[in-house]
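Re: the 171-residue chain
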Amino acid sequence: MQRGGSRVPMPTRSSTLSLRPGRLLALASAGLVPQPARAEDPEKPYRIEADGTVDWYTYNGYRRYHSDCHVCHGPDGLGSSFGPALADSLKVLSREQFLETVANGKQDLSNSQFRKMPAFGTNPNVMCFIDDIYAYLEARSDGAIGRGPPEKIAPKPQEAKDREASCMPGN
């Protein structure tokens, strides 16, 4: 996607950033966001234990999704008249395509409709937790978790507390 005539690079799963207060907006506008470190199957961004316990990051993705994304994309990623069902979209979109669309927005023009998704690249509530949102939507897309909030949630790890404090100072 283009922003101001230049391509915004998207973060990779292996990139890690330590944010200091005041640097977030500059980093987010450059497409750089913190990446949570997780011990998990490298193919899946979420972890669900045999007893149904959902990892903290996926639960946080649920929270963040329902804070900003569900207004257009419907509860639980199921879509609405304003935006597509992201639980279905992630069956065909790569992680990089998802990140690029969220950061830079998107316009779809056709003979019968016009859809425009705003860019969230400077919204810290989205960009600081984009991997968590992706993990939640991927789990929904794979059918690994159902609708509504997870019933069992793993405790919030210290690294998640530290990331939130560095990304959202004052909260």
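Residues 50 and 87 are 22 Å apart (CA to CA).
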